[in-house]
Write a structure and sequence with these properties.
279 residues, mainly alpha, 0% strand
Length: 279
């Protein structure tokens, strides 16, 4: 991988991590369209540190409020505790559990499925199919989810778990973590913006763990070459951070006005082209 490819893939990661068209799906399929060497799973997860940083900076005030409430509760300063913040933290933890368990169990299987050359066709088929299936759900979202739309502070722990179970499916490339949690959030009654924001917040712990393990794997696989390739990898991380921050802001503003149909159409077209060209 050269520095241009790393920067380009960082841009793709940054934009598509939060715009619900699947970052993993694009990072799996675009190099094949361009006839590049496929990026390893460890490099893809390493790029998540950039988008993780974008999330932390974008929601820094919210995260600081959560931390303050937690510290005040620990010190038993009841008058200073915001119970809504504690409930949100509880819901984020509950929603994180399914993805953490599934990721731990299937990590080696997923790496072999997507990284081994002999599985290339199967990986492409699965990724493109996920792009299409979730895209169709996006197109139908307004008709499927006609229940009352609640703000985020009305989210129950049971519904947080449902969203967390949906997030676990994002381990399969082409699904889109932000996309599947948006659908699940609307399915349990959240409005679009609240569903997106909860999906972004609940992805922080999962993304951190995944990026950490990806970095460890990258260090192991690179060995003595790591220092030589480090500037290339850091260039991808920097661009994923910059474009990730832009994508978060774009999505929140977009969802205030419009639904997921446009993204669904894009996903279906992209998936069909991948099947026609790459299979």
């Amino acid at each position: 991988m050269n520095i241009f490819e790393s920067i380009f893939l960082g841009i793709i990661q940054g934009l598509t991590e939060f715009i619900p068209v699947s970052s993993s799906g694009h990072l799996e399929l675009i190099p094949k369209f361009l006839n590049w060497n496929e990026p390893s799973t460890s490099f893809i997860t390493f790029l998540h540190f950039g988008t993780l940083l974008a999330l932390i900076i974008y929601y820094r005030k919210t995260l600081l409020a959560y931390l303050t409430s937690l510290l005040n509760a620990a010190k038993q300063k009841n008058s200073s505790v915001d119970n809504n913040n504690l409930v949100m933290m509880r819901n984020v933890i509950i929603a994180t559990i399914p993805a953490g368990i599934l990721g731990f169990i299937l990590n080696n299987v997923i790496e072999k499925l997507y990284d081994l050359p002999e599985n290339s066709k199967l990986a492409t088929l699965l990724t493109a199919s996920a792009m299409i299936i979730v895209g169709i759900l996006f197109i139908l979202a307004n008709k499927l989810f006609t229940n009352k739309k609640h703000p985020l502070d009305k989210l129950s722990s049971q519904n947080a778990l449902i969203i967390g179970l949906a997030q676990a499916l994002a381990i399969f490339r082409g699904t889109s973590r932000s996309g599947i949690t948006l659908l699940a959030g609307q399915a349990v009654g959240l409005n679009r913006v609240s569903a997106a924001e909860f999906g972004f917040l609940m992805s922080i712990p999962v993304t951190f763990v995944a990026a950490a393990f990806g970095t460890i794997d990258l260090i192991k696989s690179e060995g003595a070459d790591l220092l030589n390739n480090l500037p290339i990898y850091l260039a991808g991380l920097l661009t994923s951070f910059i474009f990730g921050y832009i994508a978060i802001s774009f999505m929140i503003n977009f969802l205030k006005k419009r639904g997921l149909r446009d993204f669904g159409i894009y996903r279906v077209i992209f998936g069909v082209l991948a099947l026609l060209i790459l299979i």
